[in-house]
């Protein structure tokens, strides 16, 4: 277990969720939050997520697991897809919180965050760049200066995979994050 170092995590939830699902499993967010605290000294974990009406139980479960949810309104397109791009919010929050954390842990495989990662690296404020899927992430995040900070979630399935719990007597699952 790593000593708590007042590091903050900034998590691209869409990239995290889709990347892990592409690997064939679902992330247990409670376990992931504990992993961030124990492995990287994360005291605050900001999760950037599109807000969809009706997902309030999910949002409550994420907050109960220890995440600070930063919501962005979503747009529903004619083809039925919903989009809530939170990239700008993540970068802005990382800069707003800059004086409050020792180092940042960025969770994404999206190259849109290259400029943030590079800036934090130049300032000595990056602890890790956690990429959910080492087989599918932006070439912008593969540059030599970033490589020492890259961490991948592919080998963490056994530790972080969501395993369905047996239901309570009322058939509900407390804090069920599997729908996401």
Give a description of the structure.
The chain has about 180 residues and is of the alpha/beta class. The chain has a single domain, classed as 5'-nuclease (Rossmann fold). Helix content is about 30%, strand content about 20%. It has 6 helices and 8 strands, in the order βααβαβββαβαββα. The chain has helices at about 15-20, 30-40, 55-65, 85-95, 115-120, 155-160, and strands at about 5-10, 40-50, 65-75, 75, 80-85, 105, 125-130, 150. A 6-stranded parallel β-sheet has the order 3-2-1-6-7-8, sandwiched between helices. It is globular. It starts with 6 loop residues before the first strand and ends in a 20-residue tail after the last helix. The model has no long low-confidence stretch (mean pLDDT about 90).
Write a brief structural summary.
With 180 residues, the protein is an alpha/beta fold.
